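hiii, so i know i said id send this last week but things got crazy w the move. better late than never?? heres the sequnce for the chain we talked about at the cafe, plus the structure i predicted for it. fair warning i was half asleep when i ran it
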Amino acid sequence: MRRLMRTWVATALWAVSLVSMAAEPDRRIAITIDDLPWQRMDKTPAAELAPRHAQLMAQLKQAGVPVVGFVNEGKLEIDGQVQPARVAMLRDWLDAGYELGNHTRGHLDVHAVGLPAFQQDILDGERVLRPLLAERGQAPRWFRHPYLRAGRTPEDRATLSTFLGEHGYRIAPVTVDNGEWVWAFAYANVLDDQPDTPARAATLERLRRGYIPYMLNKVDYYEAQSQALLGYALPQVWLLHANELNAVAYADLVAGVQRRGYRVVTLDEALRDPAYARGEDGYNGRYGPSWLHRWAMAEKKPREFYAGEPTVPGWVLALAGVESE
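okay and structure toks below
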């Protein structure tokens, strides 16, 4: 009798384990990093650029996961002249095995400049990138909208999408949108503008420690949004930037999302999910929300659907010198 009881208990526990495993979401996320070769190129002290870039590359190597970087070619220039040292920064990404995409030359807002100027800026954003990739038998195939702004009408979005397709590009959407840039601006401001004192070091560490849970809470929020909208955990696309903050926090950030059960996958794998066939329609406003929220708007979800998104604390906004995300 006892043997039968033990067998029954073991079988029950095994069944519970199977149910638990079946219920566990398949958490996947692709990481993209914008504004290469460096986000605040015009504000970074010239002597600091190379060591900070090297620090970021070390963080990328430590994390050891796939990344697609998006280039603003205007950042390669000084007074209209391409700087070989800045092109070498892009070569470092390629040497490390990462893919590079087009983020336009001048990080223009399509809503502000209109489609013709924006399309020209896309082409101007591949004058260095396309031959650089051709050296390795590659071609640029990913495009990321600056500010995530894709056009204010369905017609403009369709025209832009067709233009990109004709030039060999696929749009790289973003589902885990965030205020990472605010944290990064705050970190850079403290790093460059405050004297090197224990107080500055404490503030920098406070920013680094606050940034990681903020970003992971954003991932949690958008996972919940995908469950509510789609009924499953969508393979997410995460937006980051090449900056001083990620040069000290990126590996910990990746480790944090992995502890949450995520596998970091290629952008190709993430976008195989059929949800991405919805494209970027659903939002005609002036800003650039997450693709998940665009799809929710297309379904006319009520205002309550979007509640609960984590926000950047006021003290970080103040250090960044901005009023809002």
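btw Residues 9-21 have pLDDT under 50 and may be disordered. thought thatd interest u
miss u guys!!
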